[in-house]
Hints:
Elements: H1 4-7, H2 37-42, E1 47-52, H3 54-59, H4 61-70, E2 73-76, H5 82-85, H6 95-106, E3 110-118, H7 124-129, H8 135-152, E4 159-164, H9 182-187, H10 190-202, E5 207-212, H11 220-238, E6 245-248, E7 251-252, H12 261-273, E8 277-285, H13 294-314, E9 318-323, H14 360-371
Helix pairs in contact: 8-10, 12-13, 13-14
Amino acid sequence: xxxxxxxxxxxxxxxxxxxxxxxxxxxxxxxxxxxxxxxxxxxxxxxxxxxxxxxxxxxxxxxxxxxxxxxxxxxxxxxxxxxxxxxxxxxxxxxxxxxxxxxxxxxxxxxxxxxxxxxxxxxxxxxxxxxxxxxxxxxxxxxxxxxxxxxxxxxxxxxxxxxxxxxxxxxxxxxxxxxxxxxxxxxxxxxxxxxxxxxxxxxxxxxxxxxxxxxxxxxxxxxxxxxxxxxxxxxxxxxxxxxxxxxxxxxxxxxxxxxxxxxxxxxxxxxxxxxxxxxxxxxxxxxxxxxxxxxxxxxxxxxxxxxxxxxxxxxxxxxxxxxxxxxxxxxxxxxxxxxxxxxxxxxxxxxxxxxxxxxxxxxxxxxxxxxxxxxxxxxxxxxxxx
Length: 386
């Protein structure tokens, strides 16, 4: 708790209610020549990484150089989602992810696996087959894929998002689980147990994550999602489900929903109290709705990014921070209808701009890493290359 009286200042530079604090934080300009974000993260026993695509590495050497300068971990943006990797029954295509994992190993980077079980991005054949399958065949459609994917990358992928986005309290289920979910419809909450137990058997050395979004803001929507995820974790852990960590995606929307350091810190403390780890797995900041002028918008984005990371990194259970992309050149925020700017200009919600230059957000993230207290758990103990 000792840093929280200070970190409360971090987002007050914004003209929108991003925090409860009142002392302004002025994000510094970035160091354009110094070591990357992962070097800053490593000082406290943590790590920084980003989501990438194999096509970016193949076609954009300057971007590849930026990844190697900034990141110590990579995760697939889409090349391990099941609609890509299993386009037909019994037919698998891991070629895109193979290229990413080969790249990681060549350069000494750690790798995460995203994602094994998700309500979205399932192939059409699977969506049609699952409701009609006999019980054993139905279970095999879930567990068989996990076994194949994890065994393929055993020893090369150290962390897996085993179950992604399981809760949605607004859909009306009393347990808070997502109702529009083929896995929940097929198995109920048991699908989470099946997935994690299978994952543990497939690769006993991998760190297993349950991940979700909408856990960050001080809004009614996020409060309901936090309550649902905490109750789900309590039930699952009581049943002995081998969940090692909660992945908090960190898709911040500061110009739509307020961020409150105390609310978020309290949530992280509850998760830590369950005896599991924490990671920020998909951080970015939607800047639509902020100032039209770039300089004040960048300052406000950086301020809320610093506030968010100061709280996250103050918790000793937080092991890593990954952004969903590294450069605005490839950000999904620039194309997604809810977040893209009407004038077609790119979103500025990632550490590097479209020209691969470090922004104020980069500087704010580096400052948060530099100020973070040291963790007792070592990177090596979590199966990550030193």
